[in-house]
């Protein structure tokens, strides 16, 4: 790991200390306990589900797998990390890395699950509801105060140089996975083998991915959150959609690419090229002061142009938007905030914490804010051939070229997604 990254992390921790002191003073708290969380057991079993630590805990330490541990933040004092590290021959004991950031914290290694002492007017946040009632009572603090959480969420919206460096590295690792997935597709692999190729090249195990990878061949590319992997390759290969990420020091990459197969109509490959162009155009539009809803609406306007240019809609682009045709071809939002969580916090709130809900016509939009420097967003236009969304239009939208739609249905759909930082003067695309 580079000395630059280590120095950035120390600066990041110092920044958090200053900002947390302001937030705690603003909300009248003397101390704050942040619980990392712990994995839940499968029902009637002694095996745990996959786990990732609470986002505000990771914000300080970047450790996504640490369980049963606490951070205690108090103004004027070094952060205290109560790290659960039991003596255990069943599992490898938790250890901290030999890195400079550890020296910025007071670390206590705990062989039993810790219950930290909190001074003065105290608050606790995290999955504290999962703790036993006696532990909650022993902590003696206000649990999950909404206004405090909203202020800490807002702090996470704007990334430090350290966080952006982590997101950049997560993208680099994820890109290697995407390249391997494309190669496996060219080699006629099935979904499971493409997934395994992705995991190997991005150097991660499946339980550690930031979200379940979407590896969809053919019509599965039209299932927005496709959740299975067929074992055998299909007889015909129309398309591959890979929506897959990587975590680095807690921070998530979220990248999507779509590839045309040898059996796809040529028009599908042309549409993929058009969606890449649309994605690039929307990325170029990113700068401080731009409303994300405006970008989302611009996506639909350009989708209307693509539908007309590629003979999918025989009317005007404006008509395609007005009649809801573009929404049937792309039912999801343009993107979302990205950070320690894939769909990161505060995307549907104003800076003061008040709600900023998605527009009625675009209920799936996850980000409604005005862009400001330090935000990291995804830009992910899509164009899909989803029967349940298109079928209702067959009798009401004669301007749709249904012959071409039927030819493209086996291809499922297209999504292209990049991760982008809003800078002082414009943007930086982390997904080259």
UniProtKB/TrEMBL annotation:
<feature type="binding site">
    <location>
        <position position="417"/>
    </location>
    <ligand>
        <name>Mn(2+) 2</name>
    </ligand>
</feature>
<dbReference type="Pfam" id="PF21216">
    <property type="entry name" value="PepQ_N"/>
</dbReference>
<feature type="binding site">
    <location>
        <position position="254"/>
    </location>
    <ligand>
        <name>Mn(2+) 2</name>
    </ligand>
</feature>
<dbReference type="GO" id="GO:0005829">
    <property type="term" value="C:cytosol"/>
</dbReference>
<keyword id="KW-0378">Hydrolase</keyword>
<dbReference type="Pfam" id="PF00557">
    <property type="entry name" value="Peptidase_M24"/>
</dbReference>
<dbReference type="InterPro" id="IPR001131">
    <property type="entry name" value="Peptidase_M24B_aminopep-P_CS"/>
</dbReference>
<feature type="domain" description="Peptidase M24">
    <location>
        <begin position="166"/>
        <end position="424"/>
    </location>
</feature>
<feature type="binding site">
    <location>
        <position position="336"/>
    </location>
    <ligand>
        <name>Mn(2+) 1</name>
    </ligand>
</feature>
<feature type="binding site">
    <location>
        <position position="417"/>
    </location>
    <ligand>
        <name>Mn(2+) 1</name>
    </ligand>
</feature>
<dbReference type="GO" id="GO:0046872">
    <property type="term" value="F:metal ion binding"/>
</dbReference>
<dbReference type="GO" id="GO:0006508">
    <property type="term" value="P:proteolysis"/>
</dbReference>
<protein>
    <recommendedName>
        <fullName>Xaa-Pro dipeptidase</fullName>
        <ecNumber>3.4.13.9</ecNumber>
    </recommendedName>
</protein>
<comment type="function">
    <text>Splits dipeptides with a prolyl residue in the C-terminal position.</text>
</comment>
<dbReference type="GO" id="GO:0008235">
    <property type="term" value="F:metalloexopeptidase activity"/>
</dbReference>
<dbReference type="GO" id="GO:0016795">
    <property type="term" value="F:phosphoric triester hydrolase activity"/>
</dbReference>
<feature type="binding site">
    <location>
        <position position="380"/>
    </location>
    <ligand>
        <name>Mn(2+) 1</name>
    </ligand>
</feature>
<feature type="binding site">
    <location>
        <position position="254"/>
    </location>
    <ligand>
        <name>Mn(2+) 1</name>
    </ligand>
</feature>
<keyword id="KW-0464">Manganese</keyword>
<comment type="similarity">
    <text>Belongs to the peptidase M24B family. Bacterial-type prolidase subfamily.</text>
</comment>
<feature type="domain" description="Xaa-Pro dipeptidase N-terminal">
    <location>
        <begin position="11"/>
        <end position="152"/>
    </location>
</feature>
<keyword id="KW-0479">Metal-binding</keyword>
<keyword id="KW-0224">Dipeptidase</keyword>
<dbReference type="GO" id="GO:0102009">
    <property type="term" value="F:proline dipeptidase activity"/>
</dbReference>
<dbReference type="GO" id="GO:0004177">
    <property type="term" value="F:aminopeptidase activity"/>
</dbReference>
<dbReference type="InterPro" id="IPR029149">
    <property type="entry name" value="Creatin/AminoP/Spt16_N"/>
</dbReference>
<keyword id="KW-0482">Metalloprotease</keyword>
<dbReference type="InterPro" id="IPR022846">
    <property type="entry name" value="X_Pro_dipept"/>
</dbReference>
<dbReference type="InterPro" id="IPR036005">
    <property type="entry name" value="Creatinase/aminopeptidase-like"/>
</dbReference>
<dbReference type="InterPro" id="IPR048819">
    <property type="entry name" value="PepQ_N"/>
</dbReference>
<keyword id="KW-0645">Protease</keyword>
<dbReference type="InterPro" id="IPR000994">
    <property type="entry name" value="Pept_M24"/>
</dbReference>
<feature type="binding site">
    <location>
        <position position="243"/>
    </location>
    <ligand>
        <name>Mn(2+) 2</name>
    </ligand>
</feature>
<dbReference type="InterPro" id="IPR052433">
    <property type="entry name" value="X-Pro_dipept-like"/>
</dbReference>
């Amino acid at each position: 790991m580079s000395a630059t990254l280590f120095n950035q992390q120390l600066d990041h921790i110092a920044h958090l200390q200053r900002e947390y002191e302001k937030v705690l003073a603003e909300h009248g708290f003397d101390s704050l306990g942040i619980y990392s969380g712990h994995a839940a057991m499968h029902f009637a079993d002694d095996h745990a589900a996959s786990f990732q630590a609470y986002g505000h805990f990771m914000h300080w330490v970047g450790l996504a797998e640490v369980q049963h541990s606490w951070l205690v933040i108090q103004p004027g004092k070094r952060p205290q990390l109560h790290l659960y590290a039991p003596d255990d021959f069943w599992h490898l004991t938790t250890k901290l890395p030999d890195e400079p950031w550890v020296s910025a914290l007071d670390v206590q290694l705990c062989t039993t699950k810790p219950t930290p002492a909190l001074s003065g007017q105290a608050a606790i946040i995290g999955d504290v509801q999962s703790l036993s009632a006696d532990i909650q009572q022993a902590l003696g603090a206000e649990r999950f105060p909404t206004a405090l959480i909203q202020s800490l969420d807002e702090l996470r919206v704007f990334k430090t140089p350290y966080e952006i460096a982590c997101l950049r590295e997560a993208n680099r690792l994820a890109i290697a996975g995407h390249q391997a997935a494309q190669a496996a597709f060219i080699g006629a692999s099935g979904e499971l083998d493409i997934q395994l190729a992705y995991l190997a090249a991005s150097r991660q195990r499946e339980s550690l991915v930031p979200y379940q990878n979407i590896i969809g061949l053919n019509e599965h590319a039209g299932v927005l959150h496709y959740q299975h992997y067929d074992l055998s390759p299909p007889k015909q290969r129309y398309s591959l959609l890979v929506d897959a990420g990587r975590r680095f020091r807690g921070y998530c990459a979220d990248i999507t690419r779509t590839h045309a197969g040898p059996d796809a109509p040529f028009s599908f490959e042309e549409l993929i090229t058009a969606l890449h162009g649309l994605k690039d155009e929307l990325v170029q539009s990113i700068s401080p002061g731009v409303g994300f809803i405006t970008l989302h609406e611009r996506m639909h306007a350009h989708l209307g142009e693509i539908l007309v240019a590629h003979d999918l809609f025989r009317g005007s682009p404006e008509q395609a938007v007005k009649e809801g045709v573009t929404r049937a071809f792309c039912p999801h939002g343009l993107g979302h905030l990205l950070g320690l969580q894939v769909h990161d916090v505060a995307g549907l709130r104003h800076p003061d914490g008040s709600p900023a809900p998605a527009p009625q016509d675009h209920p799936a939009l996850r980000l409604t804010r005005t862009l400001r420097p330090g935000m990291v967003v995804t830009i992910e236009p899509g164009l899909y051939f989803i029967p349940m969304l298109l079928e209702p239009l067959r009798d009401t939208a004669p301007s749709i070229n249904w012959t071409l739609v039927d030819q493209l249905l086996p291809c499922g759909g297209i999504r292209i997604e990049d991760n982008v930082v809003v800078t002082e003067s414009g943007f930086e695309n982390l997904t080259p």
